[in-house]
Specification:
Helix content: 40-55%
CATH class of the largest domain: Alpha Beta
Number of strands: 9
Structural class: alpha/beta
GO molecular function, one term: DNA-binding transcription factor activity
Strand content: 15-25%
Protein name: HTH-type transcriptional regulator TtuA
Keywords: DNA-binding, Transcription, Transcription regulation
Family: Belongs to the LysR transcriptional regulatory family.
Function: Transcriptional regulator of the ttuABCDE tartrate utilization operon.
Strand order of the largest sheet: 4-3-5-9-6
CATH topology of the largest domain: D-Maltodextrin-Binding Protein, domain 2
């Protein structure tokens, strides 16, 4: 049976205070209880143990033999509980659990996270990646990098960067099948993740309103990182955020064939629970990442 079902734990706290202070009145003042409430708790504990714990004399109380035996163990127990709570708080303050989309984590965050840890060496970052949106109410998470519109109830969100999209491919693949001269020419090449709704939106904006993508095998790699890797290997044309792959584009490993960026209104945001806005580790990470994006926190 659990101890909480055997012993009145609140009464033990009152007993420790009364024994330490040698006064029902001062114990009540320390614990925020009336003298009547203190007396009740002591009586409850004495009934539970079956022995009196204090000798009540005029203007003086002293511990009985039973009380003398009980006090050191109770004091030790509360000291251990206090140490456990302090340790738990310290561990909580030292570990920042950060959720991020895989692409943002790989292409932006991990390349800069060392700067944050250099500034805040006392905070360890535990990075969790996945396309699923974390629920702060039911899951362990301090902060998240999300893509969307930023209007999540109960959360504070800060805009980080636009999530634009455009086709990319390897320069070698672009030279095949007569080259890429107009947007419709992309349809001569394999499209990576053709079921991605970004494709239809981009082709419509490019003046190709009916690209007939439904006839293609609906492969879907799930995240931009895999799509871009396949495109870099010459496996087809991917549609991603070119800003994530600026280094590969500059180095000639990838090519953006047309100067047309689209955006569906969903961008990258930093999000955290509103009721934890003043937690130091969350504020530290927020201030750092917004500074990286030259954004002033609200």
């Amino acid at each position: 049976m659990k101890m909480s079902r055997q012993f009145p734990l609140n009464a033990l706290r009152v007993f420790e205070a009364v024994a330490r202070l040698s006064s029902f009145t001062r114990a009540g003042q320390e614990l925020g209880l009336t003298q009547t409430a203190v007396s009740y708790q002591i009586k409850l504990l004495e009934e539970n143990i079956g022995e009196p714990l204090f000798l009540r004399r005029p203007r003086q109380i002293t511990l009985t033999e039973t009380g003398e035996r009980l006090l050191p163990k109770v004091s030790q127990g509360f000291d251990l509980l206090g140490e456990a709570v302090v340790a738990a708080r310290r561990a909580s303050s030292e570990i920042l659990i950060l959720h991020s989309t895989p692409t943002f984590a790989q292409q932006w965050l991990t390349r800069r996270l060392g700067t944050f840890q250099f500034r805040h060496p006392q905070i360890a970052v535990r990075l969790v990646t996945g396309a699923r949106i974390v629920d702060f109410q039911t899951e362990t998470a301090d902060i998240a990098i999300r893509w969307g519109t930023g209007d999540w109830p109960g959360l504070i969100s800060h805009h980080l960067m636009r999530l634009d999209f455009a086709p990319i491919l390897s320069p070698a693949l672009a030279e095949t099948h007569g080259g890429i001269r107009e947007p419709a020419d992309l349809l001569k090449l394999p499209l990576i993740s053709p079921s991605d709704p970004w494709w239809k939106q981009w082709f419509t904006a490019a003046g190709v309103p009916d690209p007939n993508l439904d006839v293609l095998t609906p492969n879907d790699f799930g995240v931009q990182t895999f799509d871009a890797a396949a495109a870099m290997a010459g496996q087809g044309v991917a549609i991603v955020n070119p800003a994530h792959y600026a280094d590969d584009i500059a180095a000639g490993r990838l090519l953006v064939p047309f100067d047309l960026l689209c955006n569906d209104g969903r961008n990258y945001w930093l999000a955290y629970a509103e009721n934890r806005r003043n937690v130091l580790k969350i504020r530290a990470f927020r201030d750092w990442i917004l500074q990286e994006f030259n954004t002033v926190p609200s």
